[in-house]
Amino acid sequence: MNRFQKRTGRLGVLRPLIPVIFFCLMLLLLLSGLSSISETAAREEARRLEDAVLQDAVQCYALEGFYPEDLQYLEEHYGLTYDSEKYVISYEIIGSNLMPDVSVISLRERGNGS
């Protein structure tokens, strides 16, 4: 064999593909991280909406002496706003002097099958 001739071993054929494979792996890691951040932000937004509903209900109780019968009362008198296409709020009143049970359900999470 000529000593100036290049040897092509097993890695020699794959050498041009290594940067492409590395790039694809890094891209997958980036997309996975972005997805995780997005899910965390959505959960935090739902938690804040639930806190806002409870805060408005407590404010109503402090000012008027009763918890509101429904969300519409909070929307009309206390300025509660939310995206009804993105969230469903379960607001269950137990009694006028007992704090309501509130839970927020994200429609996007449910639609994705999660």
Would you kindly provide a written description of the structure presented here, covering whatever features stand out?
This protein has 114 residues and is mostly helical. It has four helices and two strands; from the N terminus they run αααββα.
Shape: rod-shaped
| Count of folded domains | 1
Mean pLDDT: 86
Instruction: Give the total of beta strands.
Output: 2
The helical percent reads 55-70%
Quaternary form: single chain
Largest sheet, in brief, is: 2 strands, antiparallel
Number of helices: 4
- What percent of residues are in strands? 5-15%
Element-level helix/strand string: HHHEEH
Class by helix and strand content? mainly alpha
Query: How far is the N terminus from the C terminus?
Result: 61 Å
Low-confidence stretches: none
Major β-sheet strand ordering: 1-2
| Rg estimate, integer Å | 28 Å
